[in-house]
Amino acid sequence: METAGECVVVLDGANVACQKDGKVQISKLAAAIEYFRSLKISADCYSVKCLAFAPNFWLNVKPTSNRSTPSESEAIEDNDRALLCNLVQKDYVILTPSQAHDDFYVIDYAVKHNGFIVTNDLFRDHVANKRTFRGRRLTSKWVRLHCIDFTFVGREFMPNPRAIERVLDFNSKTMELLPLATSSAHLSQSGVQTSLLNNEDNSNVADDKDGEDEMLIDHAAAKSSKNIDLSEVTYYRVPRELLPILHGEGGETMDKFQRYTGTYIVLPSYAVSSYSSITAQSNVLTLSIYGAEASRQQAVAHLDAFLVQMQFQSQNGLLQQQHYLTSLNQTQIHPRQQQFAASNETQDDNMMDVDLC
Q1: Which of 199, 194, 116 is nearest to 159 (CA)?
Q2: Which domain does 37 fall in, by range?
Q3: pLDDT digits (tens, 9 = 90+) for 82-119
């Protein structure tokens, strides 16, 4: 079980160790494990927990020498078997039952701990069969967000640098907010959007129209996001109570703001806000702002100004309320000042209806 602030990275052992000719090379799996175990997330001092799942027969079925064609289990050399045994003893590699599909263990563990999967497999069969893990249906968008593809240069492990940025930018609170499964009924009431790390065609949107398992899509915003750079992201924290204002009526406020700034913004839905209040989550939510650097800077500047305005209005409203209460107390002693108190009673009921643009 991972500790607080721990980033979990799960290796698809069979996919990492078997390259090109299909021969199992445990040294490559060991190199990938060492890469992530030595990775430091310095920004928030998060530790990385890395482990791999591999089929049991790799270690527990010995090769035979009297066969002209080696079987899959016979691809393990003696040196590799000793190395694998060492990794298993350290709990860096977890062996799965021989009759089981190791993909199930890999995906299930990553979903359970909201972690990343190191694999070049897109899990298309599991997505097509709508398999569920921990009560959530696996979607192609979840795979894009959580999977890290890789290659090897000789024995050197080289993951996709764009995917590694997501690990380096890991924030446990942010990752807890984004994955909450929400039914598609909430989609019409809000502008909730989910991070897209690659451009998607309409078939991908249709495949996940139910909006299950962590990856809700605002279909209108998804179409507009095709012209926006989704490989760069800025995280922005806002008070939870401002979420309804950011969404606006039917999501129109956020939609206008995105068009104005040329960005694509992921923000929690009302369902996330309600769930978080029940589970005593932080009063601060994190927005993910995608787009070119200039566009993201413009969006941040507007959000900064918006928060200052909200803070000023909140303080001004509090002062008016205090003044009104003071006037009421004075009216009880000096009835002639009742008219003065009434004149200070009026407040702008719509003061919080602020257009971000």
Answers
A1: 116
A2: 6-170
A3: 999 999 999 999 999 877 888 999 999 999 999 999 99
